[in-house]
């Protein structure tokens, strides 16, 4: 974090982003405007989440993402909120949403918007009715030639970048308090929504994840379907043979935002491995794995598929999945040792029965 910001009271997210803009002489303020639009979308979504029980905006209502205009489910409201606010800022040419089959092309005529954004508007929406924390995830990508983008195919090609090319990434977590954790590549900073001000205020600057934790986070109900390397690693931290090491504790919420938030603050490792139903993993790269890996690495941790660094992957579809392991540096390195030991091969696309239904529907649409 910039030393000029230290010691100052009430550093809002807007103030922080503006300060970062001034550090770049040639900055036009486009990223500042875009991130301001994202934080407004998060504030509106937070209000919807808090009212969901009263207004009956059930996360499990209906089948699919859309109902009548008079009764939209909460995830649809969150998706519409993000789309509306991001489009209105006029700094984005391409949007990819977890709730949309295809990339959305904006700014067809202005030819000036040099950013693309991918987001999951409401991560963990199936937990809404149980009053469990949910969140939103986003990643901002720079475009080399926004003026040449006119079609969905061109938009898809333009946004399929390595995760290491991210310009900014973050997540909002809606719960007992509302947090927004963000990085523009200069560290990871956590902001908390002050209801009296209606502003996100800096509460944890320059977050650093522990080099080693004592918590593992994974859906252990799928353990019979895991790859061998994951089973061996989890067994080693549950039943350590080294008498100086204590067993790790399992903590799993089922909302990626909440599980990563805890991992950032307390250390340890978060895992979503391949299994029989998800041969290529379950989490999507552009708006789940990439932004979270970007945050973890900027906080001093590591993020891998077990075979390669997550941020080095070049996706081939906008909803491409990958296995995910991320967290404390030494914990992830221990995990990688088991992948090297077993010599397991990375997942590959084979027959149709190795593809998830969602993947098939996207591929049939040409994504």
UniProtKB/TrEMBL annotation:
One of its GO terms (biological process) is sucrose biosynthetic process. It catalyses: beta-D-fructose 1,6-bisphosphate + H2O = beta-D-fructose 6-phosphate + phosphate. Its cofactor is Mg(2+). PROSITE patterns: FBPASE. Its EC number is 3.1.3.11. SUPFAM superfamilies: Carbohydrate phosphatase. Residues 209-335 form the Fructose-1-6-bisphosphatase class 1 C-terminal domain. GO terms for molecular function: fructose 1,6-bisphosphate 1-phosphatase activity; metal ion binding. Gene3D superfamilies: 3.40.190.80, Fructose-1,6-Bisphosphatase, subunit A, domain 1 (3.30.540.10). InterPro entries: FBPase_C_dom (IPR044015), FBPase_class-1 (IPR000146), FBPase_N (IPR033391), FBPtase (IPR028343), Fructose_bisphosphatase_AS (IPR020548). It is an enzyme of class 3 (hydrolase). Pathway: Carbohydrate biosynthesis. Pfam families: FBPase (PF00316), FBPase_C (PF18913). Keywords: Carbohydrate metabolism, Hydrolase, Magnesium, Metal-binding. Residues 11-205 form the Fructose-1-6-bisphosphatase class I N-terminal domain. The keyword rRNA-binding does not apply. One of its GO terms (cellular component) is cytosol. Belongs to the FBPase class 1 family. Homotetramer. NCBIfam families: PRK09293.1-1 (NF006778). This is fructose-bisphosphatase.
């Amino acid at each position: 974090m910039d030393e000029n910001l230290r010691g100052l009271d009430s550093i809002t997210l807007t103030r922080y982003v503006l300060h970062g803009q001034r550090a770049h002489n040639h900055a036009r303020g486009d990223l500042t405007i875009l991130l301001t639009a994202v934080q407004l979308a998060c504030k509106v979504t937070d209000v919807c989440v808090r009212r969901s029980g009263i207004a009956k905006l059930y996360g499990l209502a209906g089948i699919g993402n859309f109902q009548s205009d008079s009764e939209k489910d909460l995830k649809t409201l969150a998706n519409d909120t993000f789309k509306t606010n991001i489009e209105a800022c006029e700094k984005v040419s391409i949007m990819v949403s977890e709730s949309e089959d295809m990339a959305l092309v904006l700014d067809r005529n202005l030819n000036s918007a040099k950013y693309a954004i991918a987001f999951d508007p409401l991560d963990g929406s199936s937990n809404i009715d149980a009053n469990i924390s949910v969140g939103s995830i986003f990643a901002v990508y720079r475009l080399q030639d926004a003026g040449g983008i006119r079609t969905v195919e061109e938009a898809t090609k333009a946004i399929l970048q390595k995760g290491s090319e991210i310009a900014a990434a973050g997540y909002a977590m809606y719960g007992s308090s509302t947090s927004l954790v963000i990085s523009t590549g200069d560290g990871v900073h956590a902001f908390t929504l002050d209801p009296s001000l209606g502003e996100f205020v800096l509460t944890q600057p320059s977050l650093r994840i522990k080099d080693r934790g004592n918590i593992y986070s994974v859906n252990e109900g799928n353990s019979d379907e895991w790859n061998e390397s994951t089973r061996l690693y989890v067994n080693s931290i549950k039943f350590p043979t080294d008498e100086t090491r204590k067993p790790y504790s399992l903590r799993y919420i089922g909302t990626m935002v909440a599980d990563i938030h805890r991992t950032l603050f307390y250390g340890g490792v978060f895992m979503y491995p391949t299994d029989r139903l998800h041969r290529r993993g379950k989490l999507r790269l552009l708006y789940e794995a990439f932004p979270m890996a970007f945050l973890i690495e900027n906080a001093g941790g590591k993020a891998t598929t077990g075979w390669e660094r997550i941020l080095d992957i070049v996706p081939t579809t906008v909803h491409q999945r990958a296995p995910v392991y991320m967290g404390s540096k030494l914990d992830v390195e221990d995990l990688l040792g088991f992948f090297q030991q077993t010599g397991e091969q990375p997942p590959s696309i084979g027959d149709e029965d190795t593809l998830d239904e969602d993947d098939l529907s996207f591929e049939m649409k040409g994504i």
